[in-house]
């Protein structure tokens, strides 16, 4: 499996969100949802063409975007696209914490190629991300239920992403503390 340049990977992950934001500003939530669905599919196709592999989290997110985006457009009700982040984040949180409950941290399946950690490191990081995903789901619920659609879209782009990046960076000490070393003393 080939890996993507980190900047290209970021563009493929953030590109659909930027399309969603810009389209919402110009044409409203329903057009933005349709363009978001198309951008997500294009992002997955480009990722697959370049790596011959579909990443798990973007794939799951794409399925939910297509289902809930389709319902949003078909029923002309923006509730469904607003529920998408709650559902995706709750699903990821449940999978990560559920894996831990069964003694199997599942985060390495997604991040193993990025870095190597000890078993304890994977357990701690999986727990933290699992809880964080549930926090994101709760925040999404509060924002979409109490704010306008435009405010929710802005928060989705300018709130959730910075929160996620800040959380990821805050995990650096744990990652450095629990790096798996090879037997010769170098990185595994």
Strand content: under 5%
Instruction: Give the tally of β-strands.
Output: 0
Structural class by sheet pairing and helices:
mainly alpha
How many domains? The number is 1
Query: Helix coverage percent of residues?
Result: over 70%
For the termini, the CA-CA separation is 18 Å
Mean of the pLDDT scores? 91
Poorly predicted residue ranges:
183-188
Summarize the structure in words:
There is one protein chain. This protein is mostly helical. It has one domain (6-177). 79% of the residues lie in helices and 0% in strands. It has helices at residues 6-27, 29-51, 56-75, 79-101, 107-111, 119-146, 149-170, 172-177. Helix 1 (6-27) runs antiparallel to helix 7 (149-170) and helix 6 packs antiparallel against helix 7 (149-170). It contains eight helices and no strands. The two termini are 18 Å apart.
Which features would summarize this protein structure in a list?
mainly alpha; 188 residues
């Amino acid at each position: 499996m080939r890996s993507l340049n980190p900047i290209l990977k970021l563009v493929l992950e953030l590109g659909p969100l930027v399309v969603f934001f810009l389209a919402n500003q110009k044409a409203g939530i329903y057009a933005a949802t349709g363009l978001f669905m198309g951008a997500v599919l294009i992002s997955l196709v480009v990722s697959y063409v370049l790596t011959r592999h579909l990443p798990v989290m973007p794939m799951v997110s794409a399925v939910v975007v297509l289902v809930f985006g389709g319902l949003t457009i078909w029923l002309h009700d923006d509730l469904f696209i607003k529920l998408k982040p709650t559902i995706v984040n709750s699903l990821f949180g449940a999978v990560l914490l559920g894996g831990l409950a069964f003694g199997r941290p599942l985060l390495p399946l997604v991040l193993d190629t990025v870095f190597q950690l000890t078993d304890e490191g994977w357990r701690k990081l999986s727990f933290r991300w699992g809880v964080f995903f549930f926090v994101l789901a709760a925040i999404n619920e509060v924002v979409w239920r109490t704010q306008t659609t435009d405010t929710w879209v802005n928060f989705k782009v300018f709130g959730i992403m910075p929160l996620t990046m800040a959380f990821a960076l805050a995990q650096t000490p744990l990652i450095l503390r629990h790096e798996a070393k090879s037997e010769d003393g170098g990185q595994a």
